[in-house]
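Students often ask why we bother encoding 3D structure as a string. The short answer is that it lets us treat folding as translation between two languages. Here is a chain of 166 residues written in the first language.
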Amino acid sequence: MNEPTIIELGEMKIGGLHVRAAETERGTDSAVARLWEQFRSSDRCIAKEAEARNPSVTYALYAEYNRSDNGACTIVIGQEVSGDDAFEEGADCKIVTLPASRYAVFTTRPGPALEVTAETWAAIDRYFETSAYRRRYSGDFELYDAKASDPGEAIVDIYISVTDEP
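And here it is in the second language, the structure alphabet:
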């Protein structure tokens, strides 16, 4: 795996379908995989047109970490939105506001999306064992844009919030 690119991003709001699960729960029968299946087969959490920032980009957000609870976090699959009323009233959608942060951006190799993201997350875990950067756990996300449009040859960028403070 190549060294990540370090970038700064401003505050963002990500909204969509959500579940609470262990951060490390990945694989074909995981809560994340089931949430992706629900996302692909549902239109319940599609942002109102005026609220969607970039409708062609999908985010898989990991936020609201509880490090003492086996790494549990809230996982949201959806879009970047501009406001807190981005979805139709009554929709079971969640909006999470990510604070402005520095991010280490890791890019997967081309391949099946579930496989290459799981592989890259494992490499990310190893990277932080020796890196000068530390994870902030303020919100991390996978970005699925045009490079990920072919599910069998997807290239996904994974953004990890970081700090260089001890």
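Translate back mentally: The domain at 5-163 is CATH 3.20.80.10 (Multidrug-efflux Transporter 1 Regulator Bmrr; Chain A). Keep this in mind for the problem set.
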